[in-house]
Specification:
The structure holds three protein chains of three kinds.
Chain A lengths: L1 H19 L4 H29 L30 H14 L1 H8 L1 H4 L2 H27 L10 H10 L11 H19 L1 H6 L2 H23 L4 H12 L12 H16 L7 H4 L30 H14 L8 H7 L1
Helix pairs in contact in A: 1-2, 1-10, 1-12, 2-12, 4-6, 6-8, 8-10, 10-12
Chain B lengths: L7 H6 L1 H7 L3 H14 L3 H9 L7 H15 L8 H15 L6 H6 L3 H13 L2 H44 L1 H10 L4 H4 L5
Chain C lengths: L7 H5 L28 H6 L21 H15 L1 H9 L11 H6 L6 H16 L1 H6 L10 H11 L7 H5 L6 H14 L5 H13 L7 H19 L14 E4 L3 H4 L3 H15 L3 E2 L16 H18 L3 E4 L4 H14 L26 E3 H10 L14 E4 L3 H5 L5 H10 L2 E2 L26 H7 L1 H14 L3 E4 L2 H14 L4 E4 H8 L20 H4 L1
Parallel strand pairs in C: 1-2, 1-3, 3-4, 5-6, 5-7, 7-8
Helix pairs in contact in C: 3-10, 6-10, 8-10, 12-14, 14-23, 15-16, 17-19, 19-23, 21-22
The chains are: A mainly alpha, B mainly alpha, C mainly alpha.
Chain lengths: 337, 193, 538
């Protein structure tokens, strides 16, 4: 935890200095982000390719419900999918709604002395909030890279700011995102067993995201950064004609950008790759039809087993005595020798 | 009244002790639960403490049930033996197989004495409670004996389980061997009724 | 002079502080009752296992082969190239903790390394250092550590405290399956010659004689004939099951525990009675007389080797399809591995079709193997057998889902349907302890050995606790199951945690209730105890 915190602060400080030093602005504002994007894309693809390189020798779905067997028994089409469609459905539930995480709460509702039920439910809820708000914030940021700004983004912003608080209008997504991140961090710090299993590389992405979102919130609501100038710079990157705008930009923006670049660079080499990995998880992405449909193991070794002939050779006389049918009678066997 | 050990009568008449302990009832339950949890390796304690679902955390649940029953003996005239017995039995059943030395497995019962003494001495009414305390501590000793009995019983059961499992897993082989030796297995080995 | 210990010191020992020592720096204590006896050198040699040697878990030196580090490195590299599951599972865990309190061993022992996430972390930490750049560069900061002999010991300790039940996998948002990791770590340990007696001995026996106890064919037959004598005593009906006979439609394979061990034998008698009653054209085999597959607790190679006999025997005998008895891990192997490993099926085999009802089991079109509760549920549904549930009227039954059929197959309704047709009183255990959320018996994956009885009782606590609940609340006195390991492990579990509950196979209940053509008036159940209502009649 401590190491991660120091690392994030140091990163932020470096970015601040970079943003405040005129000569380094090009490096921190343009070169680094562009490198980061390249590293992210290349790293992401490389990781997926690397995983995909290893085969799936066996079809091992974890079944979360009734299999399809007899016509009159109702199968669980999504939790124990028999078809490709069902499997896609299961994956969608998993990716979009965190189905497995939601399981945590189901049974506890009934017998439930409070604590376990709530804490589990919180994990599902805040994980979901975090991911969706992050997505919304991510999409909202496209307004900096597209000109004219697509109508869809405008509509999204209207909904996001529907509470009509403050100037500039408060976007719920950003605030919830920040809150969810704080919850996830507090959970790691306060739940004893979670704290025991957490590694510095669990805290680092969390703190980095808190820094990223925090600096973003500051830029919008407190520092009230000059959007037009920032857009001039981001459009420069987007159109591949990068330049540092003439008007000054707050160093805080460079901190924001620095955290983002770090996140992009770290992403492919960290646990954040669960984003891609979940699609390749063999306990989820395969249908439960393994007795009906052949699954190929590319490295299936040749069969070596003790054959019936070897078995009978060992036990022939005993089997004969017991009246068990034989392929070769003791007499035939004796005659051969 | 003249017996030096103190009697149930003393607890009944020991309204002072009752008055001293009553406000601390819940605190004493929690304290004792804490002692039981404290007997586990400390990485475990957090989980035991924060989760009291009967099925998701059987150990924590049983501990709490036992604590509640145990504390009752401080406050009732005639402790309900069956309830107490059950609660003690259930918690010792768990502790008997959990890698504790016997003295730790059973010893948690005695911690109740310390808890009571702490409350009483903090109240400054120690002298007035003396006879009632004697009686109470005898009760706690009785519970400890109960726990000792449960521990012995469960350990014995554990070993019996091994023997019985072995018999079950070879039942038909024994039968075959007996048959070959010209005996019926029933003659050779008494079956479990 | 040491101080006299005081009970009161316990009260002072509570610590609510967070643990200060990282899990990487704690070592397991090899106390008796927590580890299984090692496999014999001869057994390992006989099976051609690598680096067979004598060793003892309680001793400091495990006599590892000289180049043990290289062996592990290469073996892990090989598995990473072979299993996408391993690679993905090692990379994507976010340590969210959703699995932590789902493991029965964690719930029963409280040992933090029994949290599934940490169990896998034992391997993951080594993987990070040896196979990822970040881990090589940053070491402990990113949870990487050097492989040393203590790590090997830790692996042995904790991966033989995992029963491959997959309960954690169900709750994991990425489906990370500790069973998969356990199977692979056990493979790695076997590369160093480290195996346990209770697994390797049955493997060796199964390979040689066809069954786990090493019973030779003639004795196997004789024991089955004992059970037929018992059936005759109970029903007055003589049954002569065919052995190793060619030309029968169905080959029947069940775990050998059903033939040798109480209370499995009653389930076996149940199968035979059912087959007789419906006139099934089947044969047993002494060569393929083991449905269970302890090879699956050893390595993928050994699993395949033992399983191969099933199709080989079906081919030799010309069977059209295979009917499989009640067993847990056998069905994981059959359902998810068999056809991949040892298919395609022999030419003589066809998609299974019940000769009694005409139902075609399309769900077994490739493997051509049907679970007996699927088969029996179909019979009951079509009214092909007569059941008299009053013969089980004295039983208040609950059903224990075995982990493998529940989470590796999805066989949930079929056994329930059978039990409810054969019994008057059926009660479910609490919702979060059954079906896909079922708790393990504490002895799966080859851990049902008696030297770790204490550990098994700890692991069995969540199941025992749920059982105790329905025992108190509904008077449950019988727990049905569909697994031979369950039939071995649940009786002690019930005896300890819920004394008074007896354990039975599903087909024992069926056969008790089964009204057979030409039977005498039944007064005894399969255990030769009085049927309910008998005493009052006389």
């Amino acid at each position: 935890m401590f190491i991660s915190l120091v690392a994030v602060i140091v990163l932020g400080a470096i970015a601040w200095m970079g943003g405040a030093t005129p000569g380094l602005q090009y490096l921190f504002g343009i070169v680094l982000p562009m490198i980061a994007v390249v590293v992210f894309l290349a790293g992401f693809i490389w990781r997926i390719m690397d995983w995909a390189k290893s085969p799936v020798p066996f079809s091992i779905p974890t079944t979360g419900g009734q299999q399809r067997s007899l016509d009159w028994i109702k199968p669980a089409r999504l939790d124990s999918p028999y078809t490709k469609t069902g499997t896609v459905g299961r994956m969608l539930l998993e990716v979009l709604l965190f189905r497995s995480l939601f399981r945590n709460t189901k049974a506890e509702l009934r017998n439930g002395p409070r604590l376990v039920y709530w804490s589990s439910k919180w994990l599902w809820l805040f994980a979901l909030l975090f991911h969706y708000c992050f997505l919304v914030v991510f999409i909202r940021h496209f307004r900096f890279f597209l000109d004219p700004v697509p109508v869809a983004i405008g509509m999204m912003e209207t909904v996001d700011g529907i509470m009509q608080i403050g100037v500039p209008r408060l976007f719920m997504s950003g605030v919830i995102l920040f809150g969810a991140l704080l919850f996830l961090l507090m959970r790691r710090l306060c739940d004893q067993k979670l704290r025991y299993i957490s590694l510095p590389n669990d805290y680092f992405p969390l703190l980095l995201l808190i820094g990223l979102v925090g600096s973003g919130l500051c830029l919008r609501y407190i520092g009230k950064a000059d959007i037009a100038t920032i857009k001039e710079m981001t459009m420069g990157i987007a159109t591949l004609s990068p330049h540092i705008p003439a008007l000054p930009i707050s160093p805080l923006f460079y901190v924001h950008l620095g955290f983002l670049s770090t996140l992009l660079i770290v992403f492919p080499f960290s646990k954040l790759m669960h984003m891609g990995g979940i699609f390749l998880s063999p306990t989820r992405n395969l249908p439960n039809n393994t007795r009906a449909v052949h699954h190929t193991n590319p490295w299936n070794p040749p069969k070596t087993y003790r054959t019936y002939a070897e078995y009978e050779n060992d036990f022939r006389d005993l089997m004969d005595e017991a009246g068990l049918p034989l392929e070769i009678t003791p007499e035939q066997a004796a005659a051969k020798e | 009244m003249s017996t030096p050990q103190g009697t149930d009568e003393d607890i009944r008449s020991g309204t002072t002790l009752y008055a001293v302990l009553w406000p601390h009832k819940e605190a004493m339950v929690n304290r004792w639960v804490g002692v039981v949890h404290g007997s586990y390796p400390f990485e475990t304690i957090g989980f035991l403490r924060t989760n009291s679902n009967r099925f998701a955390n059987p150990v924590g649940y049983r501990t709490e049930e036992a604590a509640k029953a145990l504390i009752e003996i401080l406050f009732t005239d005639q402790p309900e033996e069956a309830t107490l017995h059950k609660a003690v039995d259930e918690i010792i059943r768990v502790r008997a197989i959990q890698d504790f030395p016997p003295e730790t497995a059973v010893g948690v019962v005695f911690a109740l004495k310390d808890i009571v003494r702490e409350v009483v001495s903090a109240s400054g009414q120690g002298a007035a409670c003396l006879r009632a305390m004697w009686a109470l501590e005898s009760r706690i000793d009785a519970v400890a004996l109960m726990a000792f009995g449960a521990y012995a019983r469960h350990r014995e059961r554990l070993h019996l389980l091994k023997v019985e499992e072995h018999k079950r897993s070879h039942s038909q082989l024994m039968r075959l061997a007996m048959r070959k030796a010209g005996m019926e297995p029933e003659e050779a080995e008494p079956q479990k009724p | 002079m040491s101080k006299l210990p005081k009970a009161s010191e316990l009260a002072k020992s509570i610590s609510y502080a967070f643990p200060k020592v990282s899990w990487m720096d704690t070592k397991p204590a090899f106390a008796p009752g927590t580890w299984c006896y090692p496999a014999k050198k001869d057994t390992m040699e006989g099976l051609g296992m690598p680096n067979p040697h004598n060793w003892n878990p309680a001793e400091e030196d495990w006599n590892l082969p000289e180049n043990w580090e290289e062996i592990i490195y290469n073996a892990l590299k090989d598995r990473l190239e072979k299993y996408r599951s391993l690679k993905v599972f090692l990379d994507i865990c976010v340590r969210c903790g959703a699995c932590a309190d789902k493991c029965h061993f964690f719930l029963g022992t409280g040992d933090p390394k029994n949290m599934p996430v940490l169990r896998v972390e034992l391997l993951r930490s080594v993987y990070r250092r040896d196979f990822t750049t970040v881990g090589k560069l940053l070491g402990k900061v990113v949870g990487a550590r050097k492989l040393d002999k203590d790590v090997i010991k830790e692996w042995f300790y904790y991966f033989y405290q995992c029963t491959e039940c997959r309960r954690c996998s169900l709750f994991c948002p990425y489906g990370i399956d500790t069973a998969e990791i356990t199977m692979i770590v056990r493979e790695l340990l076997h590369e160093l010659g480290l195996g346990i007696h209770w697994i390797m001995d049955p493997v060796s026996n199964c390979n040689r004689t066809g069954n786990h106890l090493g019973i030779q064919p003639h004795a196997f037959r004789e024991i089955v004939e004992f059970l037929c004598e018992d059936i005759e005593t109970i029903t007055g009906i003589q049954i002569k099951p065919p052995f190793n006979e060619k030309g029968h439609e169905v080959l029947f394979i069940t775990p050998s525990g059903d033939v040798f061990a109480d209370p499995g034998i009653y389930t076996f008698m149940g199968y035979l009675m059912l087959f007789h009653e419906i006139g099934l054209d089947y044969t047993l085999s002494t060569y393929a007389s083991e449905g269970g597959n302890f090879g699956s607790f050893t390595s993928a190679y050994m699993m395949k080797k033992l399983n191969a006999k099933m199709y080989a025997e079906a081919e030799r005998l010309g069977s059209k399809w295979i009917l499989g008895g009640e067993c847990g891990h056998m069905w994981r192997v059959v359902h998810q591995y068999m056809e991949t490993m040892n298919g395609p099926t022999p030419a003589c085999m066809e998609t299974p079709k019940s000769p009694i009802t005409g139902t075609v089991f399309h769900n077994a079109a490739a493997t051509k193997m049907v679970h007996i509760t699927e088969f029996t549920a179909d019979l009951i549904k079509h009214n092909k057998i007569t059941l008299d549930p009053s013969r089980n009227a004295d039983k208040i039954v609950t059903f224990h889902d075995s982990c493998n059929p529940a989470r590796g197959m999805g066989l949930l309704e079929e056994p329930r349907y059978c039990i409810q047709a054969a019994c008057e009183n059926f009660v479910e255990m609490p919702e979060n302890t059954i079906r896909e959320q079922t708790f393990c018996c504490g002895g799966g994956s080859g851990l049902n050995t008696e030297e770790i009885m204490e550990l098994r009782m700890r692991g069995g606590l969540p199941r025992g606790n749920a059982l105790r609940f329905v025992q108190e609340k509904h008077g449950v006195n019988t727990m049905a199951c569909i697994c031979a390991i369950d039939r071995a492990t649940l009786p002690p579990l019930a005896d300890y945690w819920a004394p008074g509950v007896s354990v039975t196979g599903t087909h024992e209940l069926i056969a008790n209730a089964l009204v057979m053509k030409g039977e005498i008036k039944r007064t005894l159940d399969l255990r030769q105890e009085d049927l309910p209502g008998v005493e009052e009649d006389e």
